Queue: 2 jobs
Job 1
Amino acid sequence: MSSSPSAQQVQVGTSALIFNAKNPDEFLIGWRISKSHGTNSWQLPGGHLDLEEEVEDCAEREANEETGLNVKAIGEITWTNDIFKNEDPSLVKHYITHHIACEMLEADAVPQITEPDKCAEWRWETREGLEKRQKNGEELFLPLESLLKKTSGTDQLRNPKVRSDGARGREQ
């Protein structure tokens, strides 16, 4: 049996819900153009959890890699069970996605497109604005859609289950 993950194994991912330091009702979304899955949909910064990595650390790392922003994870909002189906059963992807609330460390920082093959733009959006986009036919990346379905209102997104750095399980 191979030790490398396949499309038929459950993967673990994170998303970073980064609130705008200048307008706390807005959070960062990006237009996904990656060909792997979720092409042409609005997403949150995020990605795969590395071996022995804490989900908060993953959210901070992925946010920086994808946007150039330095963020601090506040805590986990919730997790979602996301199954991406395709016409070809060999392309089914299944993720458990941990959604992490994050704050910007520099209020004046501007998100950058650091992976132009994966994301075409970053913009600040409110929950209501994102829900309106969806009603107007714009697609949301499945983990983001699941997050909105599982939570109600912006306050629930802003008030995660806070964990201290000491609870992360890292060796000092």
Job 2
Amino acid sequence: MDDLIDRIKRFDKRKSKWINNILNDKNNTLKMSSNFHFLELNLAIYKLLDKKINESKQHFYIVSIIDKIRVSEFNNRLFDFGLPYVCFPILSDNENLIQQYSKLRYQKGKNAELSMDEMVLQGESAVWCNTVQFFMANDFKGVERNLNIIETLTLPKLPKNQQEFKIDYEFYKALLNKDKSKCEELLEQLVSTKIHKKRNDNAVLNKYVSQPALGYAKLAWRQSLEVEVNSPLIPKEILPIEPLDNYEIPYDFLKDELF
């Protein structure tokens, strides 16, 4: 875990400079927020490995707020490619944030010729994150609609180098059907060496956790399916749904995002 600690230390040394850049020029918020994202994500993983689950949830909470700003204020299209991003609020156990994320969409305009909802209806890549959003909101009609979109529009045009996304599709079906054993089988596939390596290209973090498998396991627990996966890449300690009594925001530039 030394490489992860060294990475955190390097990020932490730059933190005051990032904050000053944001305070001196609001236009730097988007640029600097990605740095804070990686700092807080690394801390979340480190605390998770150190069995400090409440602290890990706190850092996942901050990561999620940062990403929420990137979408809501800068119309960033994180949800076109970022299944891990949509899983971070789930790992925080902050229900208010989870519900806000379930409704979070990029809009037609800056950076987007079509809105996220329009892209989903066309079967584009945003459909994956959007399906997780529907599970977050317990909107099972939305899940059913998206499964039909994935089956009829997304899977037929899935590139050869993305065929592993069929596992995600099967997982969503199993989760909707409350099929615990099938969910566990598919999670095992996601943490298999080949699939994990392909889906987790961060050379540091991929040693410790597997996404979206960890987020999917937590999503299953939210649906009262207490899945068990025999892999250190899905640390079981964070799976129970146990919100913190209080969530803190340590950065002044995020204080407006208090709920």
